[in-house]
Amino acid sequence: MTGMSGAGKSSALKMLEDAGYFCVDNLPVPLISKFAQLALDESESLSKVALGIDIRSGQAFGELLEVLENEKRSGHSYEILFLEASTEVLVKRYKETRRSHPLSGTERVDKGIEKEREKLASLKAHADYIIDTSRLLIRELKAQMDDIFVDNKEFRNFYITVVSFGFKYGIPSDADLVFDVRFLANPYYVPELRAKTGNDREVRDFVMAHEPAGIFLDKLEDMLAFLIPNYIIEGKNQLVVGIGCTGGKHRSVTLANELVGRLAKLGYGIKAEHRDAAK
Question: Which of 49, 215, 218, 276 is deepest in the core (most CB within 10 A)?
């Protein structure tokens, strides 16, 4: 396990430990081969092992890929999990913990993060699994970890977040794609629906009862089914889709939920967020 400092490697390692893995964090790179041999010793009961290796290994970190290739040539199989997060999120996490980045020195945290990103680029390219934790809660990270390393489900290195929002509160700054559903009939003007949200059955039924809502979803689903594989080819590992209406309570919430239900069948990690539904 490796990845960006602050992306959640320590938490992920604890999750693997709870799942029955023998975990070692920050093992020096030159000791990996010796540790692998120890784990394979028949006298030891180390059937599931996870190693946390990151930039803290110093100059020896640059030798990691070579060491892993030697292990592969020796017939030892392994998988690489890479935890990623956006620079903006990592900076925020470092500010909250008041810790310094291992590569920042006397410079700002974001400079250290970009240096680390460059050093890790080749390792990320060799990763079997990439999880972007920028928008993941701990329980959502655990769910993905369990899918891969406990339940052995097929995993795709791509995560979709569908965010409902109100244009009156601004467009989500991290949205990759934004769609405006203010062309749909507005439940706000129905007195008995005004205080409810798109998470309520009555609002959902009102919105979806209008034919344009279904047509819009059909076209959006078709477009995303085309775009996502091409995003993946270009190296993108997460997509944030914004769906907005006036206040972010009714139409956008309904359409976001419906879209998540449709895209779930594609087999990617996916969730809905309703930024303004409680406002």
Answer: 276
Return the SS3 of 55: helix
Give the other-Cβ count within 10 Å of 209's Cβ: 10
Per DSSP, the three-state class of 264 is: helix
What single-letter amino acid sits at 99? R
Q: pLDDT, tens digit, for every residue of 102-147?
A: 888 778 888 889 999 998 988 888 898 999 998 888 988 998 898 8
Supply 117's token pair. Answer: 């990103």
Structure tokens belonging to residue 97:
């913990």
Which residues lie closer than 8 Å to 66 by C-beta, 6 or more apart? Answer: none
Alpha helix positions (H), the chain: 9-18, 32-40, 64-73, 87-97, 109-125, 138-149, 201-208, 211-233, 251-263
What CA–CA distances, in Å, run from 269 to 131, 136, 146, 220?
10, 11, 13, 18
Strands (E), the chain: 2-3, 22-25, 49-52, 81-84, 129-132, 159-166, 177-180, 238-245, 269-274
Could you give the CA distance from residue 71 to residue 61 in angstroms, rounded to a whole number?
16
**Euclidean distance between CA atoms 51 and 53, whole angstroms:** 6
The structural domains of the chain, with segments of one domain joined by +, span 2-149, 160-274
Structure tokens at 272: 């809905």
Query: Helix or strand or coil: residue 223?
Result: helix
Quickly tell me which residue has 């944030």 as its tokens: 240
Q: So what's the pLDDT on residue 90?
A: 92
The answer to whether 207 and 213 have CB atoms below 8 angstroms apart is: yes
